[in-house]
What we know:
Strand content: 25-35%
CATH topology of the largest domain: Jelly Rolls
Distance between the termini: 19 Å
Number of helices: 6
Radius of gyration: 16 Å
Helix content: 10-25%
Structural class: alpha+beta
Number of strands: 10
CATH class of the largest domain: Mainly Beta
Amino acid sequence: MADEDFDVGARLKAMRMAANLSQRQLAALAGIPHAQISNIETNRNSPAVSTLRKILSGLDVSLADFFEPDTGAQAGPFFGAQELVDLTSRIAGNKTGGGRLRLRQVGDARAHNLQILHEFYEPGADTGELLLQHASSEGGYVVEGELEITVGDEVRVLSAGESYLFDSRTPHRFRNLSSARTIVISACTPPYL
């Protein structure tokens, strides 16, 4: 469940100021218009996951560190359902493309240089119009439902039982265009979120 007390804008502003960066400087580092930083910090805008991740890359901060700064990930080697690190539900309403996207991480991705995610895409969920792009390799398996995946110029809808693997430096996007929930298990190395 989303934490109503978590203020994405205030957290971003505090981190930007701690890094001694102006909104314009952070925007330049992240490669986005500076007005986006202002709109997020004042909570006029709730960012898509891809936009927030791009901004955080300018601060060299992961989504896990942004949302869970005071709690270290469980050491493992085993993890219960409640021990996964929730990377996305604290984004105000987490509405991207009219749908809800939830990402839960297994353990400490940085310590193992491997990020494993349990992903939920509600109908209409979308990682955002701003395509993701990062220096990693990633792959996943669709457990339930259908997921449209864009990798460069290629677009394909994968169904339960199908999978993907690609160089994440190629711009990419994930969307659930169906009327049912989609569940994916994915991995990325080195970790991105």
